C-alpha cells in the first residue's frame, strides 16, 4: 500500500542545504490562494496579507474599539458587545476545568516562576572618589501578551509569557486572545491559566486588530510598552509593522526542532520528538541529523507507524512534505556545524554523553540534553519559557526571559575634577566630527577653575 506521507532521507548534504535546511525570509513568504481569495469578502478586493494588516492597524489606531469590533465581525464572524473578560469568567474556568489539568498548570507555573527568579537583573553602581558610573535596571511600564486560541489553544503560552514579566516587576500586564466560538467564548484552559497567574486585564480579540489595539490603545485596551507572544502570519506581520512604536519579543515564525542523534539513541523516542513539533503547523520543521543510515531508517519507520495513531496527522503529513526529513552526515561534528548554520529553535541531543557536546553549539534557542530532557518538557513544565527564536534568529536572539521586560538606564555622576580631566578628549573628538557645539560645551568645562 502506498504511504500517505514520505519522510525524506537526504544522503547529499548539499541537496539538504537547498531544501529542508534552507532558511526562508519572512519577507519571501508565499501566500496560499485561499487566503487571498478570502480577502475579497473582507476588503472587497484581493489584498495581500501585509496590506491587509496595514489597513487593520490603521483603522484600530484611528477608530479604537469600534474598529476592533468591526474587524472581529468581518474576519471571525463574531459580534461582541464587550471586549473585556471578567475576573469571574477566569475564576469560574479555573474551578471547572479537570482537577488534573489545574494541578498540571499550577505545577508548570511554579517551575516557570522559580526558573526566572534565578535570572540576575540587578542594577549596579561603581562608586569612585571622582564620581560614579552604573546601570539602573527597571521594568517596562506595561506589557501586552498575545495568546493564540485557534486550532490548538495554548494556555502554556500564557504561563510562559506572563510569569517572566511578573518576575521582572511589570505592574500592568494585559492579555489578548481570540474568541474561539461565535458567542465570544474563550477556551476554558486559557481562562484558567489567566486566573492562575493573576492576570487582571484580558480581552477577547485576536489577529492584527489585537496587536494594533495593544500598540496604540483603544477605549477598552491600554497602550503597552512591549508586546510578546506568537501567533499566525497576520499577528507576526502586525508585530513587525508596529515595532518601533512599541517593543516586541521578536518575529516568531513556525516552530522547529532539530535532533542530532547517534546509534545510541532510541529511534522510537527520536521519532516521537520530531512528530511533537510537526503537529503544530503545516510549516513546522522537524529535522534529524545523524551519521547512521541504519538509525535513520529505523526512525523513518517509527515516524510512519506513530503518525497513523495521531489526531493531527493531516497537519503532520504536510509538515513532512514542506520542511522536514533526515540528513545523513559524515559524522557528529558535521551535524553540529549544520545545526549551527540552521540555528534551530529547539536543538535536541540524543547522543552519548550529550553534555560533552555543549561546547560545539553556538546557535540554538534551547538545548535539550539527552532522552530524559525531551523538548515537550520544555514546552510545558521544565521552567524556561517556550517562547524561543525561530527562523534562524537564534543566531542573534534569545528565548523570552526576564530581560525582555526590563530596560537599562545608564547612570553618569562624575565630579568636577573628572569633568575637567575628560573634557579635552571630548573636545578633540567633537571637533573631529565637526560638532562645534559639542566641542564648546566640553571646552567650557575644561576651562573651569578646579
From the N-terminal CA to the C-terminal CA, the straight-line distance is 92 Å
Strand order of the largest sheet: 1-12-11-10-13-14
Specify the helix fraction band: 40-55%
Radius of gyration: 25 Å
Q: Could you describe the largest sheet, including whether it forms a barrel?
A: 6 strands, parallel
Quickly name the level 1 CATH class of the largest domain.
Alpha Beta
| Oligomer classification | single chain
What's the number of structural domains?
Answer: 3
Strand content: 15-25%
Mean pLDDT: 93
| CATH level-4 homologous superfamily of the largest domain | Nitrogenase molybdenum iron protein domain
Shape: globular
CATH architecture of the largest domain: 3-Layer(aba) Sandwich
Look up the CATH topology of the largest domain.
Rossmann fold
Structural class: alpha/beta
- Poorly predicted parts: none
How many helices?
17
Total beta strands: 15
Notable traits:
single chain; 450 residues; alpha/beta; Rossmann fold; 3 domains; 6-stranded parallel β-sheet; 6-stranded mixed β-sheet; 17 helices; 44% helix; globular
Question: What would your notes on this structure say?
Answer:
This protein has 450 residues and is α/β, with parallel strands linked by helices. The protein folds into three domains: 9-15 and 253-396, Nitrogenase molybdenum iron protein domain (Rossmann fold), CATH 3.40.50.1980; 84-248, Nitrogenase molybdenum iron protein domain (Rossmann fold, 3-Layer(aba) Sandwich); 415-446, no CATH class. Helices cover 44% and strands 16% of the residues. The protein is built from 17 helices and 15 strands. The protein has helices at residues 13-17, 33-43, 49-63, 65-76, 87-96, 99-117, 155-168, 188-197, 207-216, 233-242, 267-278, 293-307, 313-323, 332-342, 375-380, 416-432, 436-446, and strands at residues 9-10, 84-85, 124-128, 131-139, 142-146, 172-177, 201-204, 226-228, 247-248, 256-261, 285-290, 325-328, 346-350, 366-369, 406-414. The strands form three sheets. A six-stranded parallel β-sheet has the order 1-12-11-10-13-14, sandwiched between helices. The chain has a six-stranded mixed β-sheet with strand order 2-7-6-5-8-9, with helices on both faces. The protein has a three-stranded antiparallel β-sheet with strand order 3-4-15. Helix 10 (233-242) links the parallel strand 8 and strand 9. Helix 3 crosses helix 9, helix 5 (87-96) crosses helix 8 and helix 6 (99-117) runs parallel beside helix 7 (155-168). The longest helix is centred in the first third of the chain and has 19 residues, at 99-117. It is globular and about 85 Å long. The mean pLDDT is 93.
Amino acid at each position: 500500500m502506498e504511504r500517505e506521507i514520505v519522510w525524506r532521507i537526504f544522503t547529499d548534504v548539499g541537496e539538504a542545504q537547498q531544501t529542508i535546511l534552507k532558511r526562508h525570509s519572512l519577507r519571501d513568504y508565499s501566500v496560499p490562494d485561499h487566503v487571498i481569495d478570502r480577502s475579497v469578502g473582507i476588503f472587497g478586493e484581493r489584498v495581500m496579507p501585509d496590506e491587509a494588516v496595514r489597513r487593520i492597524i490603521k483603522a484600530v489606531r484611528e477608530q479604537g474599539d469600534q474598529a476592533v469590533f468591526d474587524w472581529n465581525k468581518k474576519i471571525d464572524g463574531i459580534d461582541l458587545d464587550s471586549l473585556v473578560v471578567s475576573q469571574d469568567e477566569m475564576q469560574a474556568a479555573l474551578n471547572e476545568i479537570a482537577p488534573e489539568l489545574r494541578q498540571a498548570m499550577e505545577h508548570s507555573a511554579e517551575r516557570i516562576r522559580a526558573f526566572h527568579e534565578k535570572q540576575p537583573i540587578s542594577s549596579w553602581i561603581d562608586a569612585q572618589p571622582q564620581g560614579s558610573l552604573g546601570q539602573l535596571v527597571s521594568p517596562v511600564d506595561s506589557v501586552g501578551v498575545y495568546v493564540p486560541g485557534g486550532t490548538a489553544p495554548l494556555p502554556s503560552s500564557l504561563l510562559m509569557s506572563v510569569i517572566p514579566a511578573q518576575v521582572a516587576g511589570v505592574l500592568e500586564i494585559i492579555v489578548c486572545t481570540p474568541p474561539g466560538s461565535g458567542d465570544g467564548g474563550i477556551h476554558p484552559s486559557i481562562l484558567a491559566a489567566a486566573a492562575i497567574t493573576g492576570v487582571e486585564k484580558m480581552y477577547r480579540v485576536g489577529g492584527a486588530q489585537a496587536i494594533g489595539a495593544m500598540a496604540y490603545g483603544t477605549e477598552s485596551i491600554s497602550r503597552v510598552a512591549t508586546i510578546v507572544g506568537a501567533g499566525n502570519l497576520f499577528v507576526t506581520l502586525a508585530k513587525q509593522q508596529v515595532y518601533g512604536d512599541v517593543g516586541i519579543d521578536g518575529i516568531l515564525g513556525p516552530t522547529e526542532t532539530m535532533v542530532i542523534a547517534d546509534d545510541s539513541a532510541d529511534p522510537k523516542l527520536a521519532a516521537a520528538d520530531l512528530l511533537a513539533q510537526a503537529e503544530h503547523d503545516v510549516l513546522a520543521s522537524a529535522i534529524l541529523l545523524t551519521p547512521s543510515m541504519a538509525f535513520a531508517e529505523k526512525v523513518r519507520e517509527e515516524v510512519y507507524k506513530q503518525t497513523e495513531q495521531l489526531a493531527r496527522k493531516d497537519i503532520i503529513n504536510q509538515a513532512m512534505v514542506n520542511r522536514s526529513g533526515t540528513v545523513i552526515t559524515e559524522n557528529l561534528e558535521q551535524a553540529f556545524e549544520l545545526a549551527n548554520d540552521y540555528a534551530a529553535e529547539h536543538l535536541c541531543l540524543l547522543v552519548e554523553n550529550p553534555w560533552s557536546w555543549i561546547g560545539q553549539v553556538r546557535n540554538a534557542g534551547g538545548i535539550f540534553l539527552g532522552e530524559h530532557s525531551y523538548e515537550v518538557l520544555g514546552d510545558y513544565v521544565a521552567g524556561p519559557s517556550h517562547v524561543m527564536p525561530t527562523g534562524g534568529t537564534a543566531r542573534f536572539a534569545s528565548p523570552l526571559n526576564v530581560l525582555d521586560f526590563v530596560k537599562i538606564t545608564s547612570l553618569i555622576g562624575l565630579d568636577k575634577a573628572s569633568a575637567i580631566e575628560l573634557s579635552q578628549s571630548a573636545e578633540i573628538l567633537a571637533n573631529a566630527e565637526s560638532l562645534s557645539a559639542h566641542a564648546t560645551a566640553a571646552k567650557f568645562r575644561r576651562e573651569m577653575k578646579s
